[in-house]
Amino acid sequence: MKSKTIDEINEKIANGKANIFTSQELKELIREDSTPNFDEVDVVTCGTCGIMSGTAAIFHLDVFEPGLFKKAKNVYLNGVAGFAGPCPNEWLGSIDTIVYGTSHSKDDNSYGGGFLFKDIVEGKDIAIEVESTDGEHYSSLITIEDMPTAQMIGTRMAFKNYTSFVNPSKDPVSSIFNAVAMEGNFKSFSFSGCGEINPLQNDLKQNTVIAGSKVLLNGSSGLVIGNGTRSSEVKPNFMLTADMHQMEGKFLGGYKTAEGPEVFTSVAIPIPVLDEKILNQLMILNHDIPLPIADIRGRHLPISETTYEKVWNNFDERPIFHINDCIHCANCLVEERCPTFAFTTVENDNNQNNKNVLDGSNGREKNLDTEKCFGCGMCAYSCLGGAFEMNTGSVAITIDDTIHNVPIACRQSDIKRAKSLTSKLKDMIEINEFKL
């Protein structure tokens, strides 16, 4: 069997002679019957983006003057609770704190850790509130530049895909697995996972991606610490870490669900093609990857199954907003439901990067922020006037000999962001900014 070493591949990269593909490029070549052979592939960059509830961050907040208080008891960043410590930092005025991406703000039910992390990475002012152990309260505004340490820790990331959900019952069910309470009687379908481009789907036995492997986490070079919590041979995942100072806000953020805000992150991992066995694993396509379907009231017992081909192949990654079809609803369901606040009503700022429609009743605009858009599909599913065009497909589910054609209403993974990060990683490798 032919083989290569990491050193040999790194030397080819340094000399500009390495053959590097993104996973989406490789998969398209396979579908076109133009599959490259072993000698023609050195590295494949794989990626995923989606809700990853195990995301947390460790901050050192260099905020207050030494001697102001003894120790911090409670800490809030934009209203999101952090756990003070573990270092007590007596009398230093600086605070160590751990913040969960799934924590909710005490001041705003729609804001949480994921939205906070995005605001921090983008350099925005962050309101710090501290209650000391002696009951005194202190506040300040800081940015990421005032955080000597801002380290993201993912306790469960880059899963080998997921379970999908429907609601067979009559009543709506509130869950983190849908942007709004999921309607009953098989009216909508929710899923996560990036299928054939997912890193662990392309390295099932973890032959190349192991503890110490380098990754790109939200645009920042990071490391695989090891396997994450609840990881198993059947459903593996990674524990990852990276410096938030180097992250890009477009790759992470908050995502509203029926149970409150969650956090989404993006991961790209290079797979060096060291032998033909590794190359063969990279041949997997969406039609080969099963996607279990579960009752949203309990994900432990799948009721049916589909494949990632049925939810990703040939479907739209982003909506098109048809301005003239907006009927100016008094209570816009799209604005109410959009998980990332990508569609909002704002004052007219003539922003040419957004798709706007003038609201004739108040002179303000409906704004679709294409940078914030997650491609979830809730806009097209919810818009009463049909102003959003997006083909997300449907899934046929057979229960007791009855076929239910269920529309895909909510994606909790973003294939477009995942592809963007795999492309960024490829570019970084090619210019020697990221070494295997």
Give a description of the structure.
By secondary structure, the protein is an alpha+beta fold. The protein contains eight helices and 25 strands. The protein has helices at 6-14, 23-31, 113-121, 276-281, 309-312, 333-337, 378-382, 415-430, and strands spanning 20-22, 43-51, 55-62, 72-77, 80-84, 94-100, 126-132, 137-142, 149-157, 164-166, 189-191, 214-217, 220-227, 238-243, 253-257, 260-272, 290-295, 298-307, 320-321, 343-346, 355-359, 364-368, 388-389, 394-399, 402-411. The strands form five sheets. Strands 1, 2, 3, 4, 5, 6, 7, 8, 9, 12, 13, 14, 15 and 16 form a 14-stranded mixed β-sheet that branches. It has a three-stranded mixed β-sheet with strand order 10-17-18. A three-stranded mixed β-sheet has the order 11-25-24. A hairpin with a 4-residue loop joins strand 21 and strand 22 (364-368). The longest helix is centred in the last third of the chain and has 16 residues, at 415-430. The chain is globular and about 70 Å long. Residues 357-361 have low confidence and may be disordered.
Blueprint of the fold:
Elements: H1 6-14, E1 20-22, H2 23-31, E2 43-51, E3 55-62, E4 72-77, E5 80-84, E6 94-100, H3 113-121, E7 126-132, E8 137-142, E9 149-157, E10 164-166, E11 189-191, E12 214-217, E13 220-227, E14 238-243, E15 253-257, E16 260-272, H4 276-281, E17 290-295, E18 298-307, H5 309-312, E19 320-321, H6 333-337, E20 343-346, E21 355-359, E22 364-368, H7 378-382, E23 388-389, E24 394-399, E25 402-411, H8 415-430
Parallel strand pairs: 1-2, 10-17, 11-25
Antiparallel strand pairs: 2-16, 3-6, 3-9, 4-5, 4-7, 5-6, 7-8, 9-14, 12-13, 12-16, 13-14, 15-16, 17-18, 19-23, 20-22, 21-22, 24-25
